[in-house]
């Protein structure tokens, strides 16, 4: 048995002991306790640098762990933005002090992170953001509003992008900051979505004072910093989803179609084959991307391909489920399940997938934006015209500036 086999065997035994009986969605305290135990056992941040609290091991150990974890659903969702986006951004462009201060507690689940980019008037075109940060001696004073911030109510820290120079074109006057979400000037309000849950939030920032050493990357270099985070986000969404269970999968729905005598219906067969092909395409592409990342190859804009394939697959599964299961696909009693009663577990999961699916085509960048990026940066097609790229931000008619200009 090689050392790697031994590593995988030990990891599997640890997971069986600690993750085997966890509920599907444990509470925050249980999720934090699990993350701390995972870290203490040496399985969080396997390839992250040891000097900042990672394990400093190779891609081979990470692969062995992922293999061991394939059969278990780890309760790490609430840490996903920190682990997938904020942590990697800090490691890429954070200062030495920032890496030493934040990375270890993030890996151990002691501190939760969120990402504050989108605003009511700046989503796809996030460079049009209007949240302002004004320098006042040793601090920056931030005012503005963010929206759709996943996990903000649980978060201790957030990566924020704000406008620090309105006199230059929109991409050039933005800075990234670490924000303490417990600051009295930060108000977080939940937004209920169509799944029945409130996964994301709106955030109001009123005179939030941020120390100058909380800038991530360069002052007015926040666009490059944000692109770093978004690249990590797309790769992480794509790779993370490759490991999560799919309630409306080909396997589940083909079984359901057989049980209902629908397998001879050419329309149903056609849809099932289409779903199978999408699953295979996504799994193979994300496996390749994941091996590249672990081998140190930067996927760059190709993360957008994984994100797009995933969003299309996420929409296709529940579509086929509606065809195969009919009304059963939406016969989901959220109240009963929330109350802990045994409900229609499978139907519930498919119905939840159905209402969650459109979100996957928006969060982390919409399908249209993914296609633009793939066209521009992967296929080398001509760039989309951007007439406002050279105009000072102050003169643009965006967000509330459009209203102020009487438009
Ligand atoms: C589940 C979920 C989680 C999220 N989590 C976060 C988070 O944690 N932090 C955060 O900052 N944001 C988050 N978001 C916000 C997300 O990033 C935005 O919703 C997304 O970028 C789109 O912005 P918008 O909603 O303002 O839509 P808009 O940008 O207004 O787009 C509206 C429509 O126009 C299309 N469109 C826009 N521009 C173009 C173009 N140039 N070419 C072609 N079509 C175009 C879009 O594709 C879309 O169909 C989340 C969203 C969701 C759904």
Automatic annotation (TrEMBL):
Keywords: FAD, Flavoprotein, Oxidoreductase. The keyword Flavoprotein applies. Residues 220-379 form the Acyl-CoA dehydrogenase/oxidase C-terminal domain. Pfam families: Acyl-CoA_dh_1 (PF00441), Acyl-CoA_dh_M (PF02770), Acyl-CoA_dh_N (PF02771). InterPro entries: Acyl-CoA_Oxase/DH_mid-dom, Acyl-CoA_Oxase/DH_mid-dom_sf, AcylCo_DH-like_C, AcylCo_DH/oxidase_C, AcylCoA_DH/ox_N, AcylCoA_DH/ox_N_sf, AcylCoA_DH/oxidase_NM_dom_sf, Mycobact_Acyl-CoA_DH. It comes from Actinomadura vinacea. Its cofactor is FAD. Gene3D superfamilies: Acyl-CoA dehydrogenase/oxidase, N-terminal domain (1.10.540.10), Butyryl-CoA Dehydrogenase, subunit A, domain 2 (2.40.110.10), Butyryl-CoA Dehydrogenase, subunit A, domain 3 (1.20.140.10). Belongs to the acyl-CoA dehydrogenase family. Residues 114-208 form the Acyl-CoA oxidase/dehydrogenase middle domain. Residues 10-110 form the Acyl-CoA dehydrogenase/oxidase N-terminal domain. PANTHER family: ACYL-COA DEHYDROGENASE (PTHR43292), ACYL-COA DEHYDROGENASE FADE34 (PTHR43292:SF4). This is Acyl-CoA dehydrogenase family protein.
